[in-house]
Amino acid sequence: MSERGSTTTIDKAADLDPEVDESAADGMSDVGSSDTEPEVRVRRWGRVVGISVIAAVVAISLSMAAVFGWKLHEARAVDSAAAAALDAARQYAVTLTSVSSDSLDQNFAAVLDGATGEFKDMYSQSSEQLKQLLVDNKAAAQGVVIDAGIKSATATEVEVLLFIDQTVSNTVAPDPRIDRSRVVMTMNLVDGRWLAGKVDLP
Predict the structure, then answer these.
(1) pTM of this prediction?
(2) Distance separating alpha carbons of residues 124 and 115, to the nearest angstrom
(3) First to last CA, the chain
């Protein structure tokens, strides 16, 4: 009876040991998984946040590059306009200040061809009176641009400051004399041409 009872007790203990081991293993597994899952989630969120930050930085960089590129393009367009207008103003200043009583029609036509707006209207209205004055005095003039520079500029309008020496002769003063003038000329882009819209002698 005692042998049998002891054998049964040993068998039960043997049967219980695996269960204890398995439950203990399960418990350890649960503890391990509960510790690991938050770390995995943190890592995943870290990757998501990192990707989002990188995407935002790339978007901002592209936007800044686009703005910078546009400003650079605009600046180059203004520089190009200023250079073209300055060259046109130099040439027109010579046309405007050079005249001969022997070729007044050609002189006046050239002046009107290079003018626009306010200045063209004013010159057209006074041209006949000016022609008669030049004929009566047998006047002649030749202008030379000594220096010129840009005062202000946009892509369609450029203000140019010119220093001009004009050699003048007429019946009253047959010996040529030099008149020095400072002229501010506003050049406007009209149908692809730079024309003088305003001429001032400050």
Answers:
(1) 0.66
(2) 10
(3) 136
Assigned token pair, 175: 């010996």
**Confidence band for 49, pLDDT divided at 50, 70 and 90:** low
Q: Residue by residue, what is the 3-state secondary structure of the chain?
A: CHHHHHHHHHHHHHHHHHHHHHHHHHHHHHHHHHHHHHHHHHHHHHHHHHHHHHHHHHHHHHHHHHHHHHHHHHHHHHHHHHHHHHHHHHHHHHHHHCEECCCHHHHHHHHHHCECHHHHHHHHHHHHHHHHHHHHCCCEEEEEEEEEEEEEECCCEEEEEEEEEEEEECCCCCCCEEEEEEEEEEEEEECCEEEEEEEECC
What pLDDT is recorded for position 66?
A: 64
Size of the chain, expressed as the number of residues it contains: 202
Instruction: Dump pLDDT digits (tens) for 60-84.
Output: 766 666 665 656 657 788 999 999 9
Q: How many CB atoms lie within 10 A of CB 44?
A: 10
Indicate left, alpha or beta for 117 from its phi (over 0: left) and psi (-120 to 50: alpha): left
**In angstroms, rounded to a whole number, what is the distance separating the alpha carbons of residues 106 and 127?**
12
